[in-house]
C-alpha cells in the first residue's frame, strides 16, 4: 500500500453539471459485473486487438525509455520549495501522484512531465481539494446506505489498512459516477494526465462481503481472500472508470497500483486489468513490497508481465522497496528492471514506504545504452545484452552460480571495478556491467 500519504488542499473546483449528468447516464448503462463490456484479447508475444484508448491519452502518458535507466518519482509530499520542484521537473519524466498545489510549477518547468492524481480505489477520500473531509458510517448510511460494504458479520464496514475511510461498493455505477465527478473531472480540469487509484488488489484481504439495498442484505462476495466475484468486480470497475475518464472533454488515463492478490503475475485477471487500463504501477516490484525477493519462476513471470504491458504501448512503473539500500540490493533491482525494460518502463527504488522524497541514486546514471536482444537463459542464469553493457540475474532462491562473461569484452561494474572473466551470482542476485 502506498501509505502515509499527506492530504491535498487547494481551491474548490466548480464542476460542470452537464458533463457529470452525461457520465452518470453513460456509466449506468451497465450495472453489474456480469454485464461488463468485452475486453481486448491479448496473449504473450501477440498484438492486442479491439478498441484501444484514445491516441491522445496514450501520447500523454508515454515516455520512450529505450535508452539507459529511467527512474520516476513516487509522490512529492516533501517536495515543496520552488527550487525542489524545479529540480524534480527537470529530472524526471513521471511523477506518480503530484500535489495539486505543485502542478502549476511542474507544468511551468516541464510541460511534458506526466502527472497523476491519487485516490484509494474504492474508499472515501474526501473532496478533490481536501482529502481529509472523509465521513463516518452514519453519514454514508443517511446519504447512500447501499454504497457501504460490510464484512460477513453484516455490521462491520470492511475497513482497510486500519483507517476509517469508508469502503464503498465499486460495482455500483452511481458510486463510480460519484468518483468521476469528485476526482476524475477536477483532475482533468487541473492538468493531470491520469487518475492513479491505489490498492487495486485482486485479494479480498479485508473480507468484504456485502451491502444493504432497500434495507435488505445483498451478499456480493464470499468474504474469503480468493474470490472470483471480487476479481470480476475489480475488472468491472477498471473498465467503467477507464471508459469514463477517456470520455471526458479533456481525456485522462487510468494507471492503477495493481496487486496480484496471491495469484501469478500472468493470471488471466491480471492480464485483463492490463488490457483495460492505460498503464500499471507495480508497488510489489521484484521485492514484494520490501518483504521478500521475487524468485524462481515467479521472477520470470514478473518480467514477462512487464513485457506484456509494454507490448501494448503502456507504461509500467516498478517500485522496489528494501529494508536497506546497499549495492547488492541496488544491483538486484536494476538488473531485474533491465531484463524487461523496453520503450515504456520506469523504476523507483526506496526504503520501505519512504515515498515523497527524491531518491536519485548514482547508479541511475549508468550509460548502458539500449537493448540488443531479449532476455535469454544461459549458464543457469538470465542475461540481456545492451549496446554498452549487460544485465545478469540469478533468480534462483537456493543456488548461486559462477558464470563466464563474453570473451574479448572488458567489463566494469557500476562502481568502476574491473570484473571478469568470471563472476559469481549468489541466490536471488543481479549484476549490471558496463563495457569498459
Structural commentary:
This protein is α/β, with parallel strands linked by helices and 436 residues long. It folds into 2 domains: 343 residues, TIM Barrel (Alpha-Beta Barrel), CATH 3.20.20.70; 69 residues, Golgi alpha-mannosidase II (Immunoglobulin-like), CATH 2.60.40. The protein is 27% helix and 19% strand. α1 runs antiparallel to α6, α6 packs across α7 and α9 packs across α10. It is globular.
* CATH domain class of the largest domain: Alpha Beta
CATH architecture field of the largest domain:
Alpha-Beta Barrel
Q: What string, H for helix and E for strand, traces the elements in order?
A: HHEHEHEHHEEEEHEEHEHEHEEEEEEEEE
**Strand residue content:** 15-25%
Indicate the overall shape.
globular
Order the strands across the largest sheet as they lie in space. Answer: 13-14-15-20-17-18
**Total number of domains:** 2
Report the strand count. Answer: 20
Which regions have little confidence, pLDDT < 50, spanning 5+ residues?
Answer: 3-54
**Share of helical residues:** 25-40%
Q: Which homologous superfamily in CATH is the superfamily of the largest domain?
A: Aldolase class I
- Work out the radius of gyration: 22 Å
- The overall average pLDDT, rounded, is 89
Q: Between the first and last Cα atoms, what is the distance in angstroms? A: 40 Å
Count of alpha and pi helical runs? 10
Amino acid at each position: 500500500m502506498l501509505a502515509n500519504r499527506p492530504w491535498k488542499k487547494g481551491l474548490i473546483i466548480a464542476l460542470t453539471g452537464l458533463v457529470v449528468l452525461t457520465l452518470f447516464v453513460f456509466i449506468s448503462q451497465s450495472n453489474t459485473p456480469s454485464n461488463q463490456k468485452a475486453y481486448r484479447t491479448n496473449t504473450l508475444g501477440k498484438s492486442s486487438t479491439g478498441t484501444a484508448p484514445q491516441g491522445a491519452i496514450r501520447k500523454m502518458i508515454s515516455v520512450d525509455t529505450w535508452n539507459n535507466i529511467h527512474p520516476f518519482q513516487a509522490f512529492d509530499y516533501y517536495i515543496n520549495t520552488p527550487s525542489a520542484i524545479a529540480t524534480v521537473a527537470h529530472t524526471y519524466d513521471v511523477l506518480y501522484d503530484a500535489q495539486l498545489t505543485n502542478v502549476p510549477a511542474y507544468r511551468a518547468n516541464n510541460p511534458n512531465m506526466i502527472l497523476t492524481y491519487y485516490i484509494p480505489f474504492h474508499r472515501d477520500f474526501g473532496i478533490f481539494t481536501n482529502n481529509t473531509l472523509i465521513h463516518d458510517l452514519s453519514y454514508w448510511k443517511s446519504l447512500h446506505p447501499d454504497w457501504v460494504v460490510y464484512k460477513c458479520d453484516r455490521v462491520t464496514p470492511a475497513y482497510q489498512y486500519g483507517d476509517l475511510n469508508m469502503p464503498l461498493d465499486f460495482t455500483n455505477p452511481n458510486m463510480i459516477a460519484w468518483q468521476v465527478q469528485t476526482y476524475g473531472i477536477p483532475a482533468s480540469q487541473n492538468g493531470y494526465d491520469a487518475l492513479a487509484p491505489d490498492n487495486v488488489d485482486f485479494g479480498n484481504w479485508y473480507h468484504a462481503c456485502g451491502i444493504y439495498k432497500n434495507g435488505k442484505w445483498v451478499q456480493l462476495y464470499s468474504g474469503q481472500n480468493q474470490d472470483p466475484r471480487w476479481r470480476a468486480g475489480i475488472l468491472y470497475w477498471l473498465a467503467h472508470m477507464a471508459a469514463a475518464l477517456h470520455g471526458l472533454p479533456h481525456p485522462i488515463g487510468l494507471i492503477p497500483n495493481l496487486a496480484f492478490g496471491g495469484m501469478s503475475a500472468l493470471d488471466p485477471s491480471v492480464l485483463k486489468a492490463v488490457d483495460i487500463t492505460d498503464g500499471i504501477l507495480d508497488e510489489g516490484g521484484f521485492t514484494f513490497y520490501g518483504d521478500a525477493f521475487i524468485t524462481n519462476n515467479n521472477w520470470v513471470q514478473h518480467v514477462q508481465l512487464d513485457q506484456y504491458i509494454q507490448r501494448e504501448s503502456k507504461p509500467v512503473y516498478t517500485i522496489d522497496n528494501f529494508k536497506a539500500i546497499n549495492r547488492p540490493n541496488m544491483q538486484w533491482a536494476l538488473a531485474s528492471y533491465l531484463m524487461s525494460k523496453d520503450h515504456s518502463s520506469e523504476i523507483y527504488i526506496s526504503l520501505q514506504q519512504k515515498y515523497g522524497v527524491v531518491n536519485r541514486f548514482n547508479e541511475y546514471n549508468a550509460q548502458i545504452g539500449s537493448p540488443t536482444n531479449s532476455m535469454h537463459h544461459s549458464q543457469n542464469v538470465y542475461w540481456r545484452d545492451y549496446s554498452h553493457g549487460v544485465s545478469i540475474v540469478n533468480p534462483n532462491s537456493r543456488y548461486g552460480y559462477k558464470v563466464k562473461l563474453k570473451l574479448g569484452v572488458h567489463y566494469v561494474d557500476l562502481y568502476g571495478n574491473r570484473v571478469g572473466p568470471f563472476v559469481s551470482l549468489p541466490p536471488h542476485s543481479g549484476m549490471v556491467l558496463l563495457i569498459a
